[in-house]
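thread: overnight batch results

M.L. [08:02]
morning all. the overnight job finished for the chain we discussed friday. pasting input first so we're all looking at the same thing
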Amino acid sequence: MKSALNARLLSAAELTRQNATFADIGTDHAYLPLFLLDSGHIGYAYCCDINEGPLDSARRNAEERGRSEQMSFILTDGAAALSGKGITDYAICGMGGELIAEIIDRAPHLADSSLNLILQPMTRQEKLREYLASHGFRIVTESYSFDAGKYYVCMSVCYDGNCRDISGLEAIAGSRDSAFRGREYRLAYLKAKLSSLERAASGKLEAGMDCSADTELIEQLKEYISKL
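M.L. [08:03]
and the structure it wrote out:
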């Protein structure tokens, strides 16, 4: 029987390329690589974590499913130690956007146009988009999902060397050059972002702070949403 995935991780699985050599950074219980192996989507997986406990759990799950020979378990902080292992697809999921940016920044070998980075920021998604654009990475696809009462975005990213600054709207809503999956969930995600921006602007206004830039971004996002 194939292992099951929740909707959040399934969106990451769907962005993984067929026959990839896969790395799961922050693997926890190895649910994602085991699903990909069980479904025949990949042939080999590196499960990586900064803590030994999650790796022990990943090993037990691999043994129970008879997948140990198709997996390596590496105690490491981030992706820097994985250079030269022939990995084609890297998943960095379940972390804040700024931490994901830091992991990429500490692994220069990820700046390679042949690689597929599957990134799922739980918070500060706009900071991750800003980092990616300014460091030559392009978001090819954004996939939106709804799981356990929350909306998530998962990104398929490649390096193209085109470093650029992006607007506040693009940092929140994504690039018009990207493909988008899950229209209904994306719309709800953006409406939630809009509400968060409005609350922040209201707080600034009550504190006597300048919120003109916030108000402009709010109006831009409202117009963007109205056209979806």
